[in-house]
Structures are given as structure tokens and as C-alpha cells.
Amino acid sequence: MAEIRIRNTNERISGEQNVKAFLDKQEVLYEHWDAAKLPEAIQEKFILSDEEKAQILSTFNQEITDLAERRGYKTWDIIALSDATPNLDELLKKFEQVHTHTEDEVRAITAGKGIFIIKGTDDVGYFDVELEAGDVISVPERKPHFFTLMDNRQIVAVRLFIETEGWIAHPFEDPSFQKA
Ligand SMILES: [Fe+2]
């Protein structure tokens, strides 16, 4: 289950209902898939063949098409990151810049962990959403955010897009952002 950490106060929010209520208020979509549906052999696998990626997509076909129909996504794929990813450190450095997109950024975590750092309403400021397998999140269009890995540095996620170009990152310079 996802957990929230509010950066200004270090307050943590846990429990599905509390997390969902908080994210609803911040206009961030949060849903849950049953990650245990995945064949055990690929539940903890972070280097994936094309066949294994296709297997993940077919396992969650119903969840994906349901989400796509409700929210207008037209294409989807799998992203897998781990220490085996070439240039992972460089990649993460690039990821860890606050930015926006012209469409929402939706990720369904199927293995591993990750964090979205999101700029909330003025009273909240930046908050972290720590995600694990089964968590589905969508950061609204034009909402400043970035994504990074957690200490275990491995994740597999389904990405869904309305248009591929909608996902281009536009840097968001924010003097109020504090890294920790
Ligand atoms: Fe993004």
C-alpha cells in the first residue's frame, strides 16, 4: 500500500483509506491492482524479456483496458529499472528534476518500489508518495512532480499514454522546492 510523507512537516499518512482521501484532495488518482496475479516467477524480476513484458500486460489486461476506457489512454508499455539498467545513476539524475507534462502521468507498479514527489496545494507543499507493487497512481497534467526509485533501486511499472508526445517533460523551476 502506498504511503505519504509531507515534506514540510515530515507527517506520514498510511492506510489505504487515509492515503486515498489525501490524494483525492490533491486531485491525484490512486487505485490498487492485485499484484499477486502475476506469475510468481516474474513477481520479483527486474530484467525482463519482451515475452515477460507481454505476460505482465496480458495478466493485467482487464485492469489496463478498464483504466484506459475510463481515462482515455490509447497506448501502454512496461518500464523496468534496476541496477542492471545501463546508466541508471545518470537516468535518475535526469528524473529527479521537478517538471510538468501536458497529459497526466499514470503508473501501475507491478514489482518493486518507487516514489513520486508531487507539489501539492499551498497548505501542504511537496509530498512524497511511496509506491509498491499493486499501487496505481496518476499525477494530473501540469502538476509539478518527479519520480525516483527507493533504496532497493528496482521497479517494474505499466505506463499508459493518451499521446506519446504528451509525456514530454517540461522543467518547472521552483525555488520553494527543497530536496530532502
Ligand atoms: Fe513526469
From TrEMBL:
Enzyme Commission number(s): 1.13.11.54, 1.13.11.53
Species annotation: Paenibacillus piri
Residues that, per the record, bind Fe(2+): 99, 101, 105, 145
Domain of life of the organism encoding this protein: Bacteria
Primary enzyme class: oxidoreductase
CDD domains: cupin_ARD (cd02232)
Sequence positions that bind Ni(2+): 99, 101, 105, 145
Record-annotated site: May play a role in transmitting local conformational changes: 104
Cofactor remark: Binds 1 nickel ion per monomer. Binds 1 Fe(2+) cation per monomer.
InterPro entries found in the cross-reference section: ARD, ARD_bac, RmlC-like_jellyroll, RmlC_Cupin_sf
Record-level GO BP terms: L-methionine salvage from methylthioadenosine; L-methionine salvage from S-adenosylmethionine
Site (Important to generate the dianion) location in chain: 107
Function, in words: Catalyzes 2 different reactions between oxygene and the acireductone 1,2-dihydroxy-3-keto-5-methylthiopentene (DHK-MTPene) depending upon the metal bound in the active site. Fe-containing acireductone dioxygenase (Fe-ARD) produces formate and 2-keto-4-methylthiobutyrate (KMTB), the alpha-ketoacid precursor of methionine in the methionine recycle pathway. Ni-containing acireductone dioxygenase (Ni-ARD) produces methylthiopropionate, carbon monoxide and formate, and does not lie on the methionine recycle pathway.
GO molecular function: acireductone dioxygenase (Ni2+-requiring) activity; acireductone dioxygenase [iron(II)-requiring] activity; iron ion binding; nickel cation binding
Designated name of the protein: Acireductone dioxygenase
Subunit comment: Monomer.
Coiled-coil features, chain-numbered ranges: none
